[in-house]
Amino acid sequence: MNSLGPSTMFAYMFFLLFPFSLVNSAKDTREDFLQCLHSQNSNSISSFINTPNNPSYSSLLQNYTQNLRVRATKTLEPLVIIKPKKAFHIQTTIICSKKHGVQIRIRSGGHDYEGLSSVSPLPFVVLDLIDLRNITVDLAKKSAWVQAGASLGEVYYTIAEKSSTLAFPAGVGLTVGVGGHFSGGGEGMMMRKYGIAADNIIDAKIINAEGKILDRESMGEDLFWAIRGGGGNTFGIVVAWKINLVDVPPVVTVFNVTRTLEQNATNLVHRWQYLVDKFPEDLALRIFVRRVNFSQDGNTTIQAAFTSLFLGRVDRLLPIVQQHFPELGLTKKDCIEMSWINSTLYFAGVPNGASLDVLLKRDPQGRMFFKGKSDYVQEPIPKNALEKIWKRLYKMDAKMAELQFTILGGKMNEISEFSIPFPHRAGNLFQIHYALLWHEESIKEINWHMKWIRELYDFMAPYVAKHPRTAYVNYRDLDLGTNNIHGNSTYQEACIWGFKYFKVNNFNRLIQVKATVDPDNFFRNEQSIPYLDHYAG
User: Per its UniProt record, what PROSITE patterns does this chain match (predicted)?
Assistant: First the structure.
């Protein structure tokens, strides 16, 4: 990952020697592609096509690439950005892309950790689903159809408009698009009660590599299994999901209690690891660990923030926490009762009292340079290892580093690891999310921060899941390995990262589905499920 391979070096040298040839070739490909779109559409395509000549092209490309790191190095820009308004626009994009050898990158919210929805080493177009965001709620059946370009905030808002006691168990990032979130599983604050988002998907509409629109019945159970957690941009383009809504009480309770090292944070984090099987499934308790200033003279310490959602009132919550985690010292004053919909604002860091209209905002907020990684933990991390982690957080080059410990258990233990491609079920205590953010844009700063988080990840190896070491596909990490994007990968290449995301049996099944539904490997990226010849047929 740190050095250029022969093929990459050749491409780089070719670009230096023949930049005009590449630009001219891209221009020709773009014109051919656009002519194809015109021939397929009887109406004007100007309403959903953005070329580099359009004033909106640059803002569409930059504003919805949430991670600035992915554009810090020289990459190809999309030939066009397509914002389909109808499924037919997607179908024609697929037809013309195949005809002219152009890759498709699919974007619903732009939150891919490695930016794979907006960048590619091959000529490509971006299919931005943001205008496909209709949400239809059926209260009688406690279900909803959600188009893939909708954000999680829009989903939550629309459900709450119809009912104060129905919800959906998905993530806390309000501007995250459902297309990518659902495709990778969709962890959230209610997964101990109801599982993840993909566990609650009951139908879908997908456009396959032949341009055909399929629902659950016509696509078959194997493909329906694969798209619920097998990662996006692999099997086709999901344009809508049918989700099962879940019951929530009229009032829930939240709290965010912070403790520093001087307030016994290390012992509290260590103790928390033993509580997965103690807490009821109505209670989720995450920990955010970061370095903070604790005095005006610049002295720093480590802070652990214990953040919780309880599906019930505070009078039920307090006895549970005081019985199983008295060390935290939780009091009634620490807790806030509110509706479930208001809790989605709370966990997104929206100030108290803000309008629910915040859920509908799609504008990117505070884009920064970012690198994330993940692990799953199956045995409590020793106290001395936690202390060594804290020392790493003290480093000057990790001023904006954060570790998130997310408790599992509950319903997650009851669902088979084979029910959908997402395998991280019974046997896992919690997930670790490593996040590092920075403002400086130089390659030196990027390398410095990448080195820090990679060293932390290497240090954690003895304390996390093994054989394989596992990771969450929605926290995409190209350090784990990549496909041969210029052709078909080998099984040996793909299983390096595939086993980590899906474990062995699920990964093998995903490969079999891929061989059946996309034998030309049209839908592909650096970590899409590869096509392998010996799995075909």
Answer: FAD_PCMH (PS51387)
**Element spanning 82, H or E:** strand 81-82
Say whether 475 is catalytic.
yes
Q: CA 340, CA 167: separation in Å to the nearest integer?
A: 8
**Per-residue pLDDT tens for 414-435?**
999 999 999 999 999 999 999 9
Which residues, 6 or more positions from 7, have their beta carbon under 8 angstroms from its beta carbon? 486
Residues 6+ apart with CB under 8 A from 367: 65, 66, 67, 68
* 261 within 8 A of 302, measured Cβ to Cβ: yes
The closest of 178, 276, 291 to 232, measured between CA atoms, is 178
How many angstroms separate the Cα of 147 from the Cα of each of 130, 136, 178, 195, 526?
9, 9, 8, 21, 25
Q: Range with the lowest mean pLDDT among 61-65, 244-248, 323-327, 528-532?
A: 61-65
Would the CA dihedral through 430, 492, 229, 2 be positive or negative? Answer: positive
| Helix, strand or coil, per DSSP, at residue 514 | helix
State the burial class of residue 132 (Cβ atoms within 10 Å of its Cβ: 0-12, 13-18, 19+): buried
Residue type for position 312: G
Provide the token pair at 124. 């490509």
User: What is the per-residue pLDDT across 320-341, written as a single tens digit (0 to 9) for each?
Assistant: 999 999 999 999 999 999 999 9
Element spanning 183, H or E: helix 178-183
**Amino acid occupying residue 158:** T
Measured torsion, CA atoms of residues 225, 226, 228, 231, in degrees rounded to the nearest 10: 170
Alpha-carbon dihedral sign for residues 469, 473, 475, 478: positive
Query: Catalytic residue among 434, 475, 531, 535, which?
Result: 475
Please say whether the beta carbons of 214 and 206 come within 8 A.
Answer: yes
Q: What is the pTM of this model?
A: 0.93
pLDDT at 45 over 50: yes
Cα 161 to Cα 28, 83, 165, distances in angstroms: 49, 27, 11
Radius of gyration over alpha carbons of the chain, in Å? 23
Contacts of 385 (CB under 8 A, 6+ apart): 462, 463
From CA 145, how far away is CA 135, in angstroms rounded?
6
Task: Report whether 532 contacts 515 (CB < 8 A).
Answer: yes
Beta bridge partners of 305: 258, 288
How many Å apart are CA 327 and CA 268, to the nearest integer?
Answer: 7
More confident residue, 396 or 260: 260
Measure the CA angle with vertex 456, ends 526 and 426; round to 5°.
70
